[in-house]
Specification:
Layout: E1 2-5, E2 11-14, H1 20-27, H2 29-34, E3 37-40, E4 43-46, E5 55-60, H3 65-87, E6 92-93, E7 103-108, H4 119-132, E8 137-141, H5 143-152, H6 156-164, E9 171-176, E10 179-182, E11 199-208, E12 217-225, H7 229-245, H8 247-254, E13 257-258, E14 268-269, H9 271-290, E15 294-295, E16 301-303, H10 304-310, H11 312-316, E17 322-324, E18 326-327, E19 336-337, E20 343-346, H12 351-358, E21 370-379, E22 395-405, H13 410-427, E23 433-438, H14 448-464, H15 469-473, E24 476-478, E25 488-494, E26 500-509, H16 511-515, E27 520-521, E28 527-528, E29 531-540, H17 541-552, E30 565-569, H18 575-587, E31 592-595, H19 601-610, E32 615-619, H20 621-626, E33 628-633, E34 641-644, H21 645-655
Parallel strand pairs: 1-5, 15-21, 23-24, 30-31, 30-32
Antiparallel strand pairs: 1-2, 3-4, 3-5, 6-7, 7-12, 8-9, 9-10, 11-12, 13-14, 16-20, 17-20, 18-19, 21-22, 22-29, 23-25, 25-26, 26-29, 27-28, 32-33, 33-34
Length: 662
């Protein structure tokens, strides 16, 4: 008999071959109906997969939303593949994973790529498959048999993949009626467990087989899938709201920046957009100054040998822009390397350069911690298809810093960083964020002992910090997602419409100081290695400004708004007074424009509202005579009020102060 331990600590003895579904039924009919999968020793499995040994068992229901969503999205992807092959029989299938909000599947159509006009028919076929309520059955196949089956069906992509999987790996497929697909699982018990009204196919795009441009172009069909129709409807509303908040669209309305092919992945900041950049940068610089950071500036180009020594050349070479040291060839046979340096690279990160500054002069244990900050411009050769507005670019500026600490200082420094970051996020309007600890990846530098210690230190720093109890309660660990040289804390913001963004990070690194020979003289007179904390709060200015644009939908707090007020006249008799009002506000440090055009005031109101100007200051003949201003805040429900000029200047000046200056 097998001993199965349930979450409440009780133990049930069952015969080998008993399934989690059998145990759910034995507990009660309600649980038997609600259980959709099981966790066996922490591994998510099919509810109908037999138990093989003593185990810890937890039954999964729809209340376990994260696991349940992963299951249903995986099922929707398989049903999408079956529906496509039913409607387009010569289509080859490849892969179809779940995603953060849905699923996709890549296909190799025989005749033509799929288009969005195909989606309604595919959706209808998916609903017919769900209605048939066919069992999803897990089968284990011999490698040769599975490869032969794929080849017999003309599935060359699947056969290629099956042939390349490791020899010892168990090959499993899931069958629903006549359709089957290679998959590790798990899945729901049958197609009928899905809600036929809780999914929607959203778009079609191209994708290369295995992500390689040298391979065949496939058709990728995206969908979104949920546990019920209510969740789907809420998601579609969020998508609609996200489209309204798209930072590229709002940037055009507000004239903030633009992108063009002459500089793929780099941003052309316009005056109004760069005003925001400067306001954010000045705020961050004041926060860093107050927190004891020293600002530095380092070169853009560094010798390849430096990147090789740091370890980035071997791990990161394909993402670096490399610059040959070359002289022209008079025979027009191309460039010739001089042999002096040979290769250089634009920096993709600032850390090796900061170590070189640290190494200048002898450092004592009394000098530590050294907090070295840089608003460093970096370049990474991101794939063209990965670029997205200013959220994913090739040239970017990090709010980067590196803290060199002794072993006994590390936890306190990480605590101080967490508390600084918390202040910044709250100042910028983000009170809802999560902290996650990314643990050691499979490929890494350093010993197991080093990783154990580094992970423990970061974990302890969060738990000992002054972060809120709610943030600590939701602290999460991410196995395998650390950098190759260090574990890291990640900080994930939640914006105004519920989307999450990973921005801040701090990494505890013992590898780079060793590779680049950084040291200090300890109290014992011997050389010691510092620990290097890599940290950022915003991540990059470009991406964080994009997040701010979408979070606020362009309606920024006054201190960040590129134009804080527009003085608009109703009649030309108020023009001179309008110039006086604008001058008084500018003298107080406010960013103000005037609109003296011979246009109706309603036209001016609409235009400046579209440009998201926080305040419209309306002046007519009466206001000019009484030296008042009709103050109209942005927003359809905002109330206009009449206020004296001196009071107006005092009020807007106070409101326009950055959070740290109030």
């Amino acid at each position: 008999m097998l001993k199965i331990t349930l979450p409440d600590g009780s133990v049930r003895e069952v015969a080998p071959g008993t399934t989690p579904a059998d145990i759910a039924a034995a507990i009660g009919p309600g649980l038997a109906k609600a259980a959709i999968a099981a966790k066996v020793d922490g591994e998510l499995r099919d509810i109908s997969r037999p138990l093989e040994a003593d185990a810890q068992l937890a039954l999964v229901t729809a209340r376990d939303e994260k696991d349940a969503l992963e299951l249903v999205r995986h099922d929707y992807a398989h049903i999408l593949a079956e529906a496509v092959q039913n409607l387009f029989p010569a289509t080859q299938i490849t892969f179809g994973p779940s995603t953060d909000d849905g699923f996709y599947y890549d296909f190799a159509p025989k005749d033509r790529p799929f288009t969005e006009e195909d989606l309604p028919a595919i959706e209808a076929e998916m609903r017919r498959i769900i209605a048939r309520d066919e069992p999803l059955v897990r089968e284990v196949w011999a490698r040769a048999d599975l490869i032969d089956a794929w080849r017999a069906q003309g599935e060359t992509f699947k056969a290629e993949w099956a042939a390349e999987l490791p020899e010892g790996e168990q090959l499993t497929v899931y069958r629903a009626g006549k359709f089957f697909d290679m998959c590790r699982g798990p899945h729901l018990a049958s197609t009928g467990k899905l809600d036929p009204a809780a999914f929607k196919l959203t778009r079609v795009s191209g994708a290369y087989w295995r992500g390689d441009q040298a391979n065949a172009m496939l058709s990728r069909i995206y969908g979104t899938g949920w546990l019920n129709k209510k969740q789907l409807d809420q998601h579609l509303v969020r998508l609609e709201e996200a489209a309204k908040r798209d930072h590229r669209r709002i940037s055009q309305e507000m004239d903030l920046f633009h992108l063009q092919s002459e500089a793929q992945g780099s941003v052309f900041w316009h005056p109004k957009g760069f005003v925001m950049w400067r306001a954010l940068e000045a705020y961050m610089r004041r926060r860093l100054d107050a927190a004891g950071y020293d600002e530095v500036k380092t070169p853009q180009l560094m010798d390849a040998r430096q990147w090789e020594q740091s370890g980035h050349w071997g791990k990161y070479r394909e993402n670096m822009f490399v610059v040959p040291d070359e002289i022209p060839n008079t025979e027009d046979e191309g460039p010739v390397l001089t042999g002096e340096g040979d290769l250089m690279a634009l920096k993709p990160m600032n850390c090796p350069a900061h170590v070189l500054i640290f190494r200048q002069g002898i450092k004592s244990y009394r000098d530590l911690p050294i907090r070295m900050a840089e608003f460093g411009c970096c370049h990474r050769n991101e794939p063209h298809g990965a670029l997205h507005g200013i959220m994913r670019v090739r040239q970017f500026t990090q709010d980067d810093a590196h803290i060199f600490v002794r072993e006994d200082q590390l936890v306190e420094e990480v605590k101080a960083f967490c508390e600084l970051l918390d202040t910044v996020y709250r100042d910028l309007g983000f009170t809802d964020y999560a902290v996650k600890l990314a643990l050691r990846p499979d490929k890494r530098f350093g010993s197991e002992e080093m990783w154990d210690k580094a992970e423990h230190e970061l974990r302890e720093a969060v738990l000992q910090s002054n972060l809120s109890d709610a943030i600590k309660a939701n602290f999460e660990e991410l196995p395998g997602e650390g950098a190759f040289y260090a574990p890291k804390l990640e900080f994930h913001l939640t914006d105004a419409i519920g989307r999450t963004w990973q921005v801040g990070t701090i990494q505890s690194d013992r590898v780079l100081p060793e590779r680049l020979d950084a040291s200090y003289v300890g109290e014992d007179g011997n050389r010691h290695r510092p620990i290097m904390l890599h940290r950022a709060i915003l991540g990059t200015f470009e991406r964080f400004l994009g997040i701010l644009i979408e979070h606020h939908a362009g309606r920024f707090p006054l201190w960040l708004a590129p134009v804080q007020a527009v003085v608009a006249t109703i009649v030309s008799d108020a023009d001179d007074y309008a110039l006086e009002v604008a001058a008084a506000l500018k003298a107080a440090g406010l960013r103000v424009e005037t609109d003296l055009r011979n246009e109706k005031i309603n036209y001016k109101v609409r235009e400046h509202s579209l440009a998201k100007v926080p305040y419209l200051l309306v002046l007519g003949k009466r206001e000019a005579e009484e030296r008042t201003v009709a103050l109209r805040p942005l927003g359809a429900d905002a109330r206009q009020e009449v206020i004296g000029l001196d009071a107006l200047v005092e009020r807007l000046t106070a409101e326009a102060k950055a959070p740290d200056l109030r």
